[in-house]
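User: I'm preparing a small set of examples for a lab meeting where we compare how different chains pack in three dimensions. I only have the primary sequence for this one, and I'd like the structure in token form so I can line it up with the others. Please keep the answer compact; I'll paste it straight into my notes.
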Amino acid sequence: MQKNKEKKIGLSTYLKRYKFGIFLYVLVYTLASVCSIFTTIIFAKAIENITLGFYSEAITNLLVIIALALGKRICWYLSRVIYQKYTTKIMAELNLDLAKQAFKLNSKTYADHDTGTFVQRIVTDPERVVTSLSDMVAVIFDVVSTLIIVIYITTINLYVGLAVLLLIAIGLAIELKRKKVRRKYKWQVRKKSDYINSLTTEIVRSEKDIKSLGLEEKLSEISKTAYDDYKKINRKSEMVDMNFYSSRNAIIEIGSIAILILGIKFIDLGLLTLAAYMIIYSNYGSLYQFIWGIGMIANTITDIKVSTDRMFGLFDNDEFVCEKFGNKHVEKVKGAIEFRKVSFTFREYETVPTKDEKSKKKTKTERKLVSENHIFDKLSFKIKPNTTVAFVGKSGSGKSTILNLMSKMYEVDNGQLLIDGININDFDKQSLRGAISLVNQFPYIFDMTIKENLTLAKKDATDEEIMDAIARASLKEFIDTLPKGINTKVGESGIKLSGGQKQRLAIARALLRNSPIIIFDESTSSLDNFAQEEVKKSIDGLKGKSTIVIVAHRLSTIRNVDQIFFLENGKIEDVGTFDELFTNNVKFKNMFYAENLNN
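Assistant: Understood. Below is the structure token output for the 599-residue chain.
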């Protein structure tokens, strides 16, 4: 059901919502174009009257042209007002719906694509589509207007008309070929643009690291390479376009002059009047305008097609995989967790073009498996509700992957992951997300005030609850030094905060949410010893109230947990309390000694 619904989503979905406004826009623009068409025809009549000596009629013709010009300008102004009103609405809805779709994508999808892929498709491509649609309407009316003039010219003389039709046929053939080539290059240009967008975002956000590590020169080289690649493919795209344009324009311009020469010959033979020749002469550029307009329509259709394919590609569940939830709603989760023979492999894909076997043309793209990393094979363990447990082990042993599976950021390949005896895939989104809070090693802090960052987790939180969470996360002393206190803005990605302050704010956010399951992914790794001890006390204070799962970098921070799972190569090698593992497990003891020696 859901998949069929997603297939129906397209640009027409949004255009239908505002069909009256679009109709009104087209109607007003049509009136403007009609005024333009009659202006040309009446101007031709004025030329004819002047050559025949009917000067009063010619003046009347020109007065009518003035009235038509005023009407045209009024219609164009109104069409612009209508355009601004409805395109703003359509763009806003497109941006919002694409952003909502991005929320549905799973964490693996984000890992497989760079930031620019999403930013460009959600923000830039909708603007391109709406702008291109407006441009296409304008060009279509220009083409129709010019076509009427071209038809009018062809009625003046049969042979002139045939010559005009021949030139049009040649011009259209060139445009059809150019359109196919242009689309291929547009995809490549947009892909390079996505990468530049991602690279620029990373450089801006990592400004301090770049300066402190002296990476300016190296990143300048990387940026230069990226921009050179973009310029190379963009230049190639423009050059191909220019070659087509130059060939087409040369043929049309030479052909148009040839028609004028033919007209002179017809005057000499008495087959064409001077007035008719003057009309052909004054409008001979219309032929060029007509072919140019057809080319612009082809450009616009290509741009719209590329942009819409990219935008609504976010709804393609093969490349952009969404999170999947069940229908089971649970009001109160107790917090028991079980891995039952869970297997998981981290797979990396890349998107590559495919060819139709018959036509040998690139018709679509498919995901190709690049690498596989087997993390777990039939992993099993249980965590009792309201207990505090920790996972320890060397880097790469699978600690963070377990947390990602618990929080359903990743999907298990085989086996079952159960919460309170219920398969995690059977929970509805509200039940699962409401039951689990995750504090990452590198939490994201939004460009808001401290208070607003906290109330994201609980919008109806009282001031007392907020201050309690702040105190328990050892953040109060820092906030008390700020002139605006909790109403201080922290900047994009919390740039005004230190790493430790970011983590403490994220911990306060999780504590305020008060979920039955709280996961800490090395969340004290950036804290100084004093703050680490304070947060450790806060976590200890949650014992018996929630199920606490900790991935620990410092073993000293998990002395008081109820149970420790010692991981090695994706397997649980040992389980016990801190004292039990320290006494009985040599590897654990060596890890503890190594940590304290390094400190």
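A couple of notes for your slides: The chain has a mean pLDDT of 81. The chain has 20 helices and ten strands.

User: Perfect, thanks.
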